[in-house]
Amino acid sequence: MVNNTVAKFSIEYYQYLNAQGELINPTEKLPAWAQDFATLQEAYRMMVLTRAFDNKAIALQRTGKLGTYPSSLGQEAVYIGIGNALEKQDVFCPSYRDWGTQLIRGVTMGEILTYWGGSERGSDFQASTAKEDLPNCIPIGSQCLHAAGIATAIKLRQQSRAALVTCGDGGTSQGDFYETINISGVWQLHLVIMIVNNQWAISVPRKSQTAAETLAQKAIAGGIPGEQVDGNDLIAVQDRVSRALKKAHEGGGPTVIEAITYRLSDHTTADDASRYRKKDELAEAWQNDPITRLRQYLFLHQAWSENEEKQLQQICSEQVAKAVDAYQQQPLESPENIFLHQYATMPTSLATQRDEFLAKQQQQG
After folding, report:
1. Which residues are tagged catalytic?
2. In terms of domains, do 339 and 203 share one?
3. Where are the beta strands (DSSP E) in the chain?
């Protein structure tokens, strides 16, 4: 009997900054963009704004002014890193807590609030950069297939652009994810698949979801490269996503990136994580807070001050308050809208229902 090893694989892990905001390898040269403190300051501002918006959205839900809402607390470096790496011509296919990326793409806080307030008007993005981006995807994993379809169209049109899709650690257990991995490898699609591993699929911990040592290695089954990145390190996230997108733009095929981070919040405002998550685990996770990490790096290099921090907090608070005020003052939708946009041409059966509904509305005054 012949016993030969026919294949070997490895998963690389990328990180620049440790939890204290220090360079892990001081002699290693950072990417060119990361050597510009003005660029890092802007990324930091967006991370802080994302968290300020997140906090306010939760408060709105608690007071009955917003529907169920999924917080992105603790994952800001992932979403800002993705947003900064995406080119204008790329297509973003989000899951459902990707506010940081959407804000950078030009989606407004008002549009995000409108969506979670129960109106699809919030999915009608007005920014030219986001016009072809997909809306939030609530079903777990199905956005991966949508992204594969878009990436296929990009390849057939021979365009220098790519699709980027995000999914959670739980989403990698879905058939949609595996089908996307498979077809991406076969067709060498212009696609970047970003696994946001926040350690929890609602109340199911990462260790109970899969026996795979890493989630990135699931890419290997599809014949495409997979890697890990410290999802709390803005510089590392943006660098690795930028490289993967550049490769996709040039026809080099897909990449899977697993960002290791942590969900510091409940899964959504309909969840109570204290029922299944230990307090000491959460406290330990807070030590890796991505915002604190980048701020500390800027402090260490005299590129940020306490006064600038105070001003930023005030600016973010004002921006969020202005967006909330506009959201609360927008007119209600017409009840007739529930019947619209279901079909290109409304069928007779639906038109009859609409007419009956409107007649009843008129009778009620």
Report:
1. 263, 267, 276
2. no
3. 13-14, 91-93, 163-168, 191-197, 200-201, 204-205, 226-230, 255-260
